[in-house]
Design brief:
Strand content: 15-25%
CATH topology of the largest domain: GMP Synthetase, Chain A, domain 3
Strand order of the largest sheet: 1-5-2
Distance between the termini: 29 Å
CATH superfamily of the largest domain: K homology (KH) domain
Number of helices: 7
Structural class: alpha+beta
CATH class of the largest domain: Alpha Beta
Helix content: 25-40%
Order of helices and strands: EHEEEEHHHEEHEHEHEE
Radius of gyration: 19 Å
Number of domains: 3
Length: about 240
């Protein structure tokens, strides 16, 4: 797939999501922006949304580029939400300045919201990993981690402002992501067994790209079912289909 269409509250938000989906840098794409009409009660309290279409520029692929599709060799299709982000990680450049910017950005937010929390920042395989602990901070996780994902995106935008080299940011609060991953894997296996036993297609609820990758990975070697995704974000969902009907 050489393009994606993403809806976001701001151009920067939508473009960042699209770049992650395509595993591309800003100079490797063309961007078309369309402003959506605001939705709301007679226009009050309504927020405009932007739909951006981000298209990869035509370039000659090298052997190194082909390595970015390593998930395909492990049983994944080449759909946009199943791509490995190894290219972004290899190009991620972390320095003390990026760590300080991330910490200050979060500290300012916590101060404004009057939240007491401890921030720990580390580097892991080219990723800036930020762990936040504190009971009060847990309210920033949101339903199924939606608020956490938004805060992670905003932190990434703050860190990468005016930078030539991209820094991938992973934010976690009270070890939520590990707990969510464990829960998703159990859920995937349960739905897979149900799909195989009843010999019927099961569509899961919409998930973000990070959670869809967990489901795909958990079931990639399953003997009885296969998975694929359908729809467009934010309503894109995983379909579990029995191999033997």
């Amino acid at each position: 797939m050489n393009y994606v269409e993403i809806v976001g509250k701001t151009r920067e938000e939508a473009v960042e999501k699209a770049l992650l989906e395509l595993n591309a840098k800003i100079e490797d794409v063309t961007i078309d922006v369309e402003e959506q009409k605001p939705k709301g009660f007679f226009g009050f309290l309504a927020k405009k949304e932007l739909r951006v279409k981000v298209t990869l520029k035509e370039t000659k692929k090298t052997d190194e580029d082909l390595e970015d599709f390593s998930f395909a060799s492990k049983g994944f299709s080449l759909e946009d939400d199943k791509k490995d982000d190894s290219k972004i990680l290899k190009e991620s450049v972390i320095d003390e300045n990026s760590k300080e910017m991330a910490k200050k950005f979060l500290e300012d937010i916590f101060t404004t919201l009057e939240i007491n929390a401890e921030i720990n920042i580390s580097e892991n395989e080219g990723c800036l990993c930020i762990g936040v602990t504190g009971d009060e901070a847990s309210r920033l996780i949101g339903r199924r981690g939606e608020s956490l994902d938004s805060l992670q995106m905003l932190t990434g935008l703050a860190v990468n402002r005016d930078r030539d080299k991209y820094v991938k940011v992973l934010l976690d609060i009270e070890n939520y992501r590990a707990k969510r991953e464990e829960s998703l894997i159990k859920y995937a296996n349960k739905m897979a067994r149900q799909s195989a036993k009843q010999r019927r297609v099961i569509k899961l609820e919409p998930m973000n790209p990070y959670e869809r990758r967990i489901i795909h990975s958990a079931l990639q070697s399953d003997r009885y079912v296969k998975t694929y995704s359908e729809g467009k974000d934010p309503y894109r969902k995983i379909v579990i289909e029995p191999k033997y009907k």
